[in-house]
Amino acid sequence: MSKVNPHNYEAFFLDYLEGKLSAREKAEVDAFLEKHPELKAELEEFETISLDAETVKMPKADLLREEETGLSRKDYLLIASVEGTLSKTEKTELDKLLEVEPNLLDELSIYEKTKLPEENLAFGAKEDLKQKEGRVIYWQFYAASASVAAAILALFMFNFNSVQPRYEFEAVEKSNLYSDQTPEAEFQYVIEEAEKQKEKNKTNLGSPQAAPIYAQASKPKPTQKQKPLNQEEEKQPKEMLQAMEQEAPNFAEEQKSPQPMEVEKMKLPEENSLAALEEDKVISNQAVSAKEIPLKEYATQKLKEEVLQNKSVSQALADEIAALTNDKVNFSTDKSDKKKGLQFAMNLGNFSISKK
Amino acid sequence: MTTKEYNQTVELYSDNVFRFVLKNIRNEEKAKDIVQDSFEKMWQKRDSVDGSKAKSYLFTTAYRTMIDKIRKHKKQGNWEEVNERDYAQSAVHHGLSEVLQEALSRLPEKQRSVVMLRDYEGYNYEEIGEITDLSLSQVKVYIFRARKALKDYLVSIEHVI
Questions:
Q1: Of A235, A214, A196, whose CA–CA distance to A291 is shortest?
Q2: Residue of A nearest to B40 (CA)
Q3: A70 at the B interface (CB within 8 A)?
Q4: In this structure, are residues A330 and A140 in contact, taking their beta carbons and an 8 Å threshold?
Q5: Cα A114 from Cα A164, distance rounded (Å)
Q6: With an 8 Å Cβ cutoff, is B135 touching chain A?
Q7: Distance between CA atoms of residues A327 and A319, nearest Å
Q8: End-to-end CA distance of chain B, in Å?
Q9: pLDDT, tens only, A67-112
């Protein structure tokens, strides 16, 4: 090693403090310090930075791994503290760690900040989710309901078209001219015609010249719209006739005190009684003529009882849809303005169709 | 569950479920769809749902519906990436809340979900496990790792708080 001088004295100072210098070199450093007393302070500074073995402890909490999470023991303890899941032992361990490493308090406060603050996000369509009638109806259900309603409406229309040739009475035939009307309009027409005929027969009762409508019914002239009846259908007018025969005495009584409500009390003839009547084959023209009105009323009554169950067409339709959809249904018609024709509206839950 | 209880559930928890789903998928329309689907499912199963456990049932349904939709959309296209662009935030953040939300959005889906259920809804590990179909231990691991990831993001050089 060269002699100590102002350019290399730091290396000599370090070796001096660490005891690495020979006796001769140590004497040279001492002589150098005598010449440069201002450097004595620097030598003392070198002494103070000598490392104390006790202060260089490696924090084990950074190296140790927590078994379950795989995180360092330090992070685990800090997070568990934030989560509030520290056991007693872990809490003691954390306290000791914080004593040794007070800077971990800063880290702990950062962990506290990872807790998500309350944030309000409003769901806008809340009211749409609530149940008004005890049910949630989504658009798929609306579509299905509309389909059902349309199907039932079509069913009713077809039913009316198929019923007309079966009963074969004048009013129904005429109603074919109005086939573009709604079923309710057609049905209303039938009822009105029946009423007119009833009035007419009141005046003609007992007159042998009166042309019995039965005669028209017995020889039906199929219109272009009428399809050939099958065997079962062909029997229908005959059965109607038999029914009329049974009703004849009742009609006579009815003429004495005509009360519309009595029609509703009228019972349909049973099959056995019809057969018995066929065997008798005692039918007078007068009796047939007298039974024309009961036939219409019978047909009307049969329609009301069996198809409509004594309800209006609109009510029956509404009830059918309500039964299928389990939802409220309103069906209303308005014929007040004849120029505009029939108006109707149907509401199914929040779904509605109308014609104006 | 009665209709009244159902409506109360709508009033009390629809916002919470919406927040939970929206924070996960970051698509408002799809989040609304999932919330509606979840309530619809709950209504359909109302006879078997205990009114006192409606919230838990709702979150469970919403979580599973959300996972199904995410998987489905990931197969069809990359839903997450599209939304990542839509919701990408600038590098400049103005506060802890924004940075934290950004950090949250970067978490893996399961970590994000469990942390939200823990912090927003206050569920314990067991309840979170029931909702997310995870074991108690898994829930704990996901939460601890999520906290570590959030903390690392907060103290990273770009986002010193």
A1: A214
A2: A136
A3: yes
A4: no
A5: 80
A6: no
A7: 10
A8: 47
A9: 788 888 889 999 999 999 999 999 999 998 898 888 889 889 999 9
Q: Is B26 left (phi over 0), alpha (psi -120 to 50) or beta?
A: left
| pLDDT single digits (tens) B8-55 | 888 888 888 999 999 888 888 888 889 988 988 988 888 898 888 889
Residue among B93, B109, B97 at smallest CA distance from B23: B109
Q: Which residue has the tokens 């849809």?
A: A321
Residues in chain A with CB shorter than 8 Å from the CB of B18 are 121-123
Q: Cβ distance A295 to A214 under 8 Å?
A: yes
CA A348/CA A173 separation, integer angstroms: 33
Say whether residue B87 is in contact with chain A using an 8 A CB cutoff.
no
- The span from the CA of A198 to the CA of A339, in Å, is 28
CB atoms A122 and B10 under 8 Å = no
Is there a contact between A164 and A176 (Cβ–Cβ < 8 Å)?
yes
B74 neighbors B80 (Cβ within 8 angstroms): yes
Q: What is the three-class DSSP state of B139?
A: helix
H-run or E-run covering A351: strand A351-355
| A114 contacts in chain B (CB < 8 Å) | 100, 103, 147, 150-151, 154
d(CA B152, CA B161): 11
With a CB-CB cutoff of 8 Å, which residues 100-119 of chain B face chain A?
100, 103-104, 115-116, 119
